[in-house]
Specification:
Two copies of one chain form a homodimer.
Chain A: E1 10-16, H1 21-31, E2 37-44, H2 50-57, E3 62-64, H3 73-86, E4 91-95, H4 103-108, E5 113-117, H5 129-136, E6 140-147, E7 157-164, H6 171-195, E8 198-201, E9 204-207
Parallel strand pairs in A: 1-2, 1-4, 2-3, 4-5
Antiparallel strand pairs in A: 5-6, 6-7, 8-9
Helix pairs in contact in A: 1-6
Chain lengths: 213, 213
């Protein structure tokens, strides 16, 4: 997205597949004024996602876009891009969206697609991050907010936060502790991107010194 | 090493290749009574390692064991095992030791060889951890104390601590911030192993519940 200070709330789309707990955290940050954005649209690839009902209750437009209705990732990407562009969406936030977005989608929203992942990437990419962290025996895991690129969980990192792993943790206790941090960190990272003043230098997302103009 | 409460200080060997700043941190923890151990021997694979001179100044026995004097990793391991066993060493702490220890050494000291690594493993194993963390653009790196196994930087993890990565970090500033944590965490992790009451469950190093006997 345009990397400059915004005076009007930035129109977001949030992509979900389930309950959308991070969608709710984003909605709360918007309501509290911590996030200068407006959720213009919530899209789910599953029509029965609980987060869609929550969104409608909030007066947010929703769209179910079942992936099985499309013959390819490219066709799905194109439909999604068209829906988002038609509504003036400028920033896309994945929140438990369990589908790969391909190059077609990523090119349509350069440096404007964000995801939150339940580990300190590059450790434990993929869909089983918490279980893999436990099995590996790490003592520190965490949360990563990153730009989405066609490579899974490998885009430039915007924010990370550490979460301790305890000896008596189960998948549930660790996942819950990480989720609390996701809800805290994700809206803050989105606001940093909206606020501007950053650049991507190689793989590093860095804030420009104040002295630069 | 024997996983039980120790009443006498545990004889350690510290392996170094250079200045041995973690060796000094271990020595300070011993002197302060935070680590119930005695440094019985310091070994370097380089005769000019500055840490050897420091050790002699502390009255600690030193041994230079140049790797180029040995035809193979196995021959080196055997000489090292012999030197350590002859002095009653029970726990081996790597502190910037830039040589691979092979299966011969690891089998001679089961669950009794420790290393400190300047990243949150499994991210960034190997000799360039800080530079790779910077290039990857992580916002959180850290320190890992782990058991040494013949696979490089892949043994069960004893302790980890997170260290923030800043936008203006260089290799030097990040390495320095991580080193401060190494000096804090490594003696504490060694003391946990000496104190006993832990077990290795799969890859996880976990403390036994107090109710277990």
């Amino acid at each position: 997205m345009a990397n400059a200070v915004e005076n009007t709330p930035v129109p977001l789309c949030v992509l979900i597949s389930g309950r959308g707990s991070n969608l709710r955290a984003i909605g709360e940050a918007v309501a509290a004024g911590r996030l200068r954005a407006v959720i213009r649209l919530v899209v789910s690839n599953r029509a029965d996602a609980a987060g869609l009902e929550w969104s409608r209750g909030q007066g947010i437009e929703t769209l179910a876009l079942p992936h099985q209705d499309y013959p390819s990732v490219e066709a799905y990407d194109e439909a999604l891009v068209q829906a988002l562009k038609a509504r003036g969406v400028r920033l896309v936030c994945l929140a438990g969206f369990m589908r790969i977005l391909g190059p077609v989608f990523c090119k349509a929203f350069p440096q404007a697609v964000l995801n939150v992942h339940p580990s300190l990437l590059p450790s434990f990419p993929g869909a089983a991050a918490q279980a893999e962290a436990l099995a590996h025996g790490v003592k520190v895991s965490g949360v990563t907010v990153h730009f989405v690129t066609p490579e899974l969980d490998a885009g430039p990192i915007i924010m990370q936060a550490a979460v301790p792993v305890r000896d008596d943790d189960t998948y549930e206790t660790l996942s819950t502790r990480i989720l609390v941090e996701e809800h805290r960190v994700y809206p803050e990272a989105i606001q940093r991107i909206i606020a501007g003043g950053w650049r991507v230098d190689g793989r590093r997302v860095v804030t420009n010194p104040v002295s630069e103009t």
